[in-house]
Amino acid sequence: MSRPFPVHAIVALLVAAAALPFTACGDGDDAAPAATPGTAAPRTATPAGTAPAPTPTGGAPSPAATPAVRATPPPAAPATPPVAGAYAAVPAFTQFNFERMVGLFPVPGSGDAVALTQGGVAYIASLAGAAAPPRVYLDLRDKLIDNPGNEEGLLGLAFAPDYASSGRVFVYYSAGEPRRSVIARYDASSGVADPASAQVVLEVPQPFANHNGGALVFGPDGYLYIALGDGGAGGDPQGNGQNTGALLGKILRIDVSGDTYSVPADNPFATGGGRGEIWAYGLRNPWRFTFDRETGELWAGDVGQNRWEEVDRIVRGGNYGWNVMEGRECYGNAACDAAAFIAPRAVYGRDEGCSVTGGYVYRGAAMPELRGWYVYGDFCSGKVWAVNTRDESDAVLLAASGKPISSFAEADDGELYLVTFERAIFRLSRP
After folding, report:
1. pTM of the model
2. Each residue of 62-78: pLDDT tens digit?
């Protein structure tokens, strides 16, 4: 597969790709035999059969009938739009300097944050940079799959909405024998999670080592949303993206307020036509999604195959086209009906990067011109863009950071940070 990078960009890309936790191009080199469900796992999600063709599943909700839910009316647009190239990544939170960090999550009501590492350890420290060094919040190395693929590991964390009183925290990790994605709950006390309190909530068999998704986010409705990739290899060989009988290639929505999970009654397939856990489908490898804290809209970055990275506004029952579409094009030179799917809000090609990292809608005060713009980046190129959530205007390139951006973080004040594989975190700022 050719990449239209100049020589210096190719060198930079090869260096970044050596540490890449979520590949854009799944060519099947890391293929593994399909896993079978574990016998003792509670609420194990059984894999659906291979879809015969990548066509939309009958009975699926119409995109036109599934508008995004807004918690509040969107605020007025700022008078001055952001200026291309006027932003920079400034070092921040230097106490978090760990290998392969894939997330930074402020602990509700504490002034602390937890840094998540793909290798299986989560660390907690004060965001104020106090003298006390980080300490281990949760160590799951003994839970992870042996000899993991480059995209497997400890990938997601979410604090329950009532964490301050319940101490409940949820994690997403890759386990083995058989290969599977695990969503588990832990209870925290004295400021750290108790490893002995583990309660497996959901397990999803994984046929291959790549395209795991991995994000966990509680929505404004109090339900837990989960990102799962299409199962891996390349081109979605099992047809999971368009198969509403499978959980892979989806964003799920479940109620975890009890000891086991349940399906919310208003999920699009709660009464039939697909797995009840599904909220949206037709996704290849959604790497990071978040809710706009003011409007309640859900935004995601979906990693592409060979040509296009995309940014999506996720709605109830929405079908985002994979593996019929990649970006705004029919995938694999096949004819398709693009109107049957929800088009991306933004796309970019291989000349701009190779693996999108979803971010946040900016709601801070330091850069008022960015309020209401969704900020996202690319792991390989380190570029950071923003799109206006109120219209369909072109994306604005905010910065060319050169950093391997594995995730974004949002502080309580709405300011945004870049989490990177440089063992460092950076604040997005306008000098």
Report:
1. 0.86
2. 433 333 444 455 555 55
